[in-house]
Design brief:
Layout: E1 11-14, H1 20-27, H2 35-44, E2 48-55, E3 58-66, H3 73-76, E4 84-92, H4 101-115, E5 120-126, H5 131-139, E6 143-144, E7 150-157, E8 163-176
Parallel strand pairs: 4-5
Antiparallel strand pairs: 1-2, 2-3, 3-4, 5-8, 6-8, 7-8
Helix pairs in contact: 1-2
């Protein structure tokens, strides 16, 4: 049995209205609160851009970039976010991890944030898991903000329409542009 890696191309671009349902099926099959639609709405409102990495016709990763900085008071009360972009909801499909997908999305996000007049960019990263992501972000120049961890929460919905709140302990990483 030969061991080889299938070649693929990464194209990173803002999601289009006609692609949101496909992106939702690929990234959020079991979340009925429609997070992909909410992220597209941020883009539609001009508050940011929802960047999707594609391998041909398949969405393989994404990040939402907000032009207004993080929404959490834990961060906004401690640092100036007035000209800071914010990366959130980053993900890469398992079989595409460690192949440059997240790096391509983040670099495009940084480029667009600079064009939008942002001087910094940041993200909240889980303190409990995903050490590979933490290593990647630090390799790309993101540094710990120095104020420790804090808890974030968000609403989700199951197939029966029951709402729940999930949470995670995170730290904030930032980078000058």
């Amino acid at each position: 049995m030969s061991n080889y890696e299938t070649s693929f191309t990464i194209e990173v671009k803002p999601v289009e209205a006609s692609q949101v349902d496909l992106v939702h099926r690929q990234f959020s099959q079991d979340d009925y609160s429609l997070p992909q639609h909410r992220r597209y709405q941020v883009q539609s409102n001009g508050e940011g851009v929802y960047l999707i990495a594609w391998d041909r016709e398949t969405p393989i990763g994404g990040f939402l970039v907000r032009w207004s900085g993080p929404q959490d008071e834990a961060v906004s009360s401690r640092i100036d976010i007035s000209r800071s972009a914010f990366l959130e909801a980053g993900l890469t499909i398992d079989e595409y991890r460690r192949k440059g997908v997240a790096t391509a999305i983040i670099r495009e996000a940084e480029r667009l944030a600079k064009l939008h007049g942002c001087t910094h960019i940041g993200m909240e990263v889980s303190s409990n898991d995903n050490p590979d992501a933490n290593r990647l972000y630090k390799k790309l120049g993101y540094v710990d903000w120095g104020y420790g961890d804090f808890t974030i929460s968000w609403k989700c919905m199951d197939a029966d329409g029951n709402s729940r709140v999930d949470s995670d302990v995170v730290t904030f990483l930032q980078k000058p542009l």
